Amino acid sequence: MLFIRTTFFILLAAHWHLGLSCPQSDHSHPTREKAAEIARNNNARRDVRNVPAPKKIAIENVRVFDGEKLLPLRTVFINGDTIVPYVKGADVVDGNGGTLLPGLIDAHTHPSTVDHLETLSSFGVTTTIVASCQPEAICESIQNHTGLTDVRFSGLSANAPNSTHAKLLGLLPNETLTSPSQAPQFVDDQLAKGATFIKIVAEQPDSTTLDQDIMNALVDAAHAKGVRVACHAAGYAAADRALTARVDQLHHVPQDTPTDEPLIARILAQKAVSIPTLSIFRQFVMGGAAPPSAYSAANASAHELYKASVPILAGTDSNSNPTLGLPFGKALHDELELLVGAGMSTVDVLRSATVLAARHNLLFDRGVVAPGMRADLVLISGDPIANISATRDIQRVWIAGIEYEEVAAA
Ligand SMILES: [Zn+2]
């Protein structure tokens, strides 16, 4: 059992390492070279796709999810990259009585190529939060691809030099932290590289993990700069340490002992949010990398957090690891179903991937269908409040007003 649990934590970390197929090998050097090559390819594809210019569009005959309910049939107007109350001379799109959702937001992914962005786009994921940027060359190269999923990233995740994650990620000593005094510089370095939030890895405590003092100092330094802190915490003791550090977002949920009343009381008091990532737990159980109890604990945590009114964001941990990867885009639709399975209402599940995901990632220009907002929209044919699986039936996707035409059937 202990072996299985340890393996699970290693694998949970391992998928972050681009191209990592064997957690035992040292991939740091080849991975960095490979990353540079991937980044060059990504940059070479910037602006060479045949991207239509933003237009004036009138999407007629659609119900609109307003964050609480479906509004009666109406017309939604887009002018360029923005939703507007009305615009003259618009091209008309017939929504055929379908439902218009705000573009979906996946709050935890690891895309590394433009192809990954294309896939996310095709499934209606118009914004994604890239939870740690390792190897670093990648993140900038997947930003600002017009007409594709909008990317926000964290920079390097904060780790101790000899921790499990540092080894698996192939971090160099100067990319890790050994003292609280290094925290302000670490935060400044990530922000200078374009990070919009800071990511800390809280492992189950042992002699190799990041000290509590360092975690506390990182959160203080990030908050002093007005940025939020996301924390990997896949075990109960790790979540406890994350909360002691006063992080803003708890990514994953304990897969050993479910989140209980004492932890929840602290989460509520600190106004933290949870990104349970049930899909990756399910993936590990299905792949034999974790015992079934890992999923039941994760599911129980999500259930208790929701019951206590902790804000839940939909995140998948989708990644391209060859053995335990999770498909981009499709995984978000799976996650929505798994969150319903954990007891959430369909309305709250839709909010977890739209308005709440935007608000808690400080993306105030999106997450709702309203004039003035970014024209990130997903047209589906059914009623996702009646049945969450309706989100899979995607008809059309717009990203900042540009239609992504190769939509997928999720
Ligand atoms: Zn992850």
UniProtKB/TrEMBL annotation:
Species annotation: Favolaschia claudopus
Signal sequence segment: 1-21
Keywords of this entry: Signal
GO terms for MF: hydrolase activity, acting on carbon-nitrogen (but not peptide) bonds
Pfam family, one: Amidohydro_1
Domain (Amidohydrolase-related) ranges: 99-401
PROSITE patterns per UniProt: PROKAR_LIPOPROTEIN
InterPro entries registered for this protein in UniProt: Amidohydro-rel, Metal-dep_hydrolase_composite, Metal_Hydrolase, Metallo-dep_Hydrolase
Name listed for the protein in its UniProt record: Adenine deaminase
Coiled-coil ranges from the UniProt annotation: none
Gene3D superfamilies assigned to the protein according to its UniProt record, in alphabetical order: Amidohydrolase (3.40.50.10910), Urease, subunit C, domain 1 (2.30.40.10)
